[in-house]
Write a structure and sequence with these properties.
single chain; globular; alpha/beta
Length: about 150
Amino acid sequence: MLKEGQKAPDFELPAVGGETIRLSDFAGKKVVVLYFYPKDDTPGCTKEACFFRDIRAEFVSADAEILGVSVDSVASHEKFAEKYHLPFPLLSDENKKVVNDYGVWAEKSMYGKKYFGTERTTFVIDKEGVIRKIWRKVKVEGHVDEVLDFVKSL
């Protein structure tokens, strides 16, 4: 289980627009807000993505980049990003390597049925690649403002 103060595991994932994103690309340049979410175009995930979209300019002003990650395909991400005009990269982790490396692939329960899925989690990674803050089992309401406040404090 990753902890605050640890080096963030590097990764390379495909993103919307045919891009490949590496965490190390941001080293020395930007703070990274890495948020993991369960599924494109579902109520909570849509709300969270739109909250990040609506105040993205404030993250940019704070020298931070927002990256969304789920195990959905790039094609699914492209539809989701287009439908909601999401201006930040959505990364596809279909082989589940990154969700496992970050400890967010977990057993969940819905209506008494157990299954594995992505636990909604946000990491703030500083310009040196160190995890500065982790929010686990995120509740969407108010979360993005809390993340922004933390990023501004760095």
